[in-house]
Every structure is written in structure tokens, then in C-alpha cells.
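Team,

Forwarding the record for the chain on the shared tracking sheet. I've put the sequence and predicted structure together so nobody has to dig through attachments.
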Amino acid sequence: MTGYTLYGRNASPYTRRTAIVMRLLDLPFKQVVVSPFTDLDEIRKVNPLGRVPVLRLADGTCLVESACIIDHLLGDHDGDHRILPAGGPDRRRDLQLVALCQTATDKGVLAGHELLMRPAEKRHAPFLQARIDQARAAMLALEDRLADRPLPGGTPSLGEITAAVTLDFLDGFMPFVLRGLPLPATRSLGERLEATDSFTAQAPEARMGLDPAPDLS
């Protein structure tokens, strides 16, 4: 028994990809479903930044930020490098997929916060459009890198996991970001992985559905 406790909701793509990696590594864990929007005081008990995910280890140590948490998990439990190649071009290519997904997610979240938290009359349209453009550019670059990559037949890589989670997050929470983008390879990957047990077990609890597209005129 590893004694892992994961804090965060599956609606967070950062929490969700962490939980999926843990399932693929066959690591038992308890998930405490909390959100910075509704449970900030509770989250600050394990992360003073008030962010999720947080992974509490058996000795009480709390790890923050999904990239650091996943790095720890892979270092301890992915000795055969099923999820992330050990080195060389394959590792570099996979980490570039992760980096593009991180950009798409981060810029999409910034756009969503601008829409959710700022009154319409105070929104800065150029800022919002720039964030949407960055997210779209990242997804198109991701599509280019996935286009010639075969669909995973066994354990998906970290880059593939993150790509599927990112697509599901943007589709479900802010579909205006991706509207009209040709992403056939990314969607094929997403459909394949979302049907697997590790993904369905960590399905998002709810979707905000920020749609239709904001008026940026």
C-alpha cells in the first residue's frame, strides 16, 4: 500500500492527468475531491498556494504541481519507462507534446477566468483574443506532431495522456477555443483513450460549458 492521497477534482486537467498516470502505474490512492473555487481553506492546509493537484505521501510530505508530482511517480514506479521514454529523441518528442498541451491549457484557463470572473464591460478584448489565439496555435502544433504518430496500442505515453486530457478539458469547458480547428489526429487519440478504464474512472465531475463564443468586437 503506497498511502497516496490526491487532492483535486477531475474537472481540473492537471489533477485528472495525474490521477490517470497513477492508475496506469497501478498505484492505489485516495482522492479528496476539492476545488480552489469552493474549498480554498482546505486546500491551503496541504498547499499554501491554494492550487491543485496536491499529492500527500505516506510520510505526510505534500507534493504540488502536476509536472513535479508525475516526475516523482514515474521516477519511483515507471522503471521500465512505459509512460515516459528514458531519454533521447523519443523522450524529447513526448515532453514537447506535454509542453504544447500545457500552453493550450494554461491559455485556455486564462481566457476562461477572464470570462467567468470579470464583468463584461471590464473585459480586455485584445488580452482575451490573444490567449485564445495562443491556445489554438498550441493545439494546431500538437495536431501536427500527432498526425504521423500511430495510435497507442498499449500503455499511452505521458504526452498522449496529456493530449487527450487537454482536448477533453477544452471541449468540455470552453469549446469556443477549439471551434473550427481541424484536429483529426488529436480527436482520434482522445476517442481511443477516453474509452479506456483509466480515463473513464477519472471522468470530470461537471463541465462549465463556457459557450457560445464571447463577443470580442
